[in-house]
């Protein structure tokens, strides 16, 4: 390969190595963020079920 191609490949390999390092640093943050999102979703689902279960009794009380 020519020098230009080798230089381009070297730059690409350097960029890929840099991205891998960034991903290694970001992965624990992404996992923690996802866990918090799942926990919040569970709480919202629980509240939704609780409110849904109260609706029939509220309607019966009014009727």
Descriptive report:
The chain is mainly alpha-helical and 63 residues long. The protein has one helix spanning 3-62. The longest helix is centred in the middle third of the chain and has 60 residues, at 3-62. It is rod-shaped.
Number of strands: 0
Shape, please?
A: rod-shaped
Q: DSSP helix count? A: 1
Return the structural class: mainly alpha
Major β-sheet profile: none
Overall pLDDT: 86
In what range is the share of β-strand residues? under 5%
Amino- and carboxy-terminal Cα gap: 84 Å
Rounded to the nearest angstrom, the radius of gyration is: 26 Å
> What is the succession of H and E elements?
H
Query: How helical, in percent, are the residues?
Result: over 70%
Low-confidence stretches: none
Write the layout of secondary structure elements.
Blueprint: H1 3-62
Which key phrases capture this entry?
single chain, 63 residues, mainly alpha, 1 helix, 95% helix, 0% strand, rod-shaped
Task: Give me a quick take on this structure.
Helix content is about 95%, strand content about 0%.
């Amino acid at each position: 390969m020519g020098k230009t191609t080798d230089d381009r490949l070297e730059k690409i390999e350097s960029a890929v190595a840099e991205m891998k390092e960034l991903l290694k640093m970001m992965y624990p943050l992404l996992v923690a963020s996802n866990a918090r999102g799942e926990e919040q979703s569970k709480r919202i689902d629980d509240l939704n079920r609780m409110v849904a279960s109260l609706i029939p009794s509220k309607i019966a009380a009014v009727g």
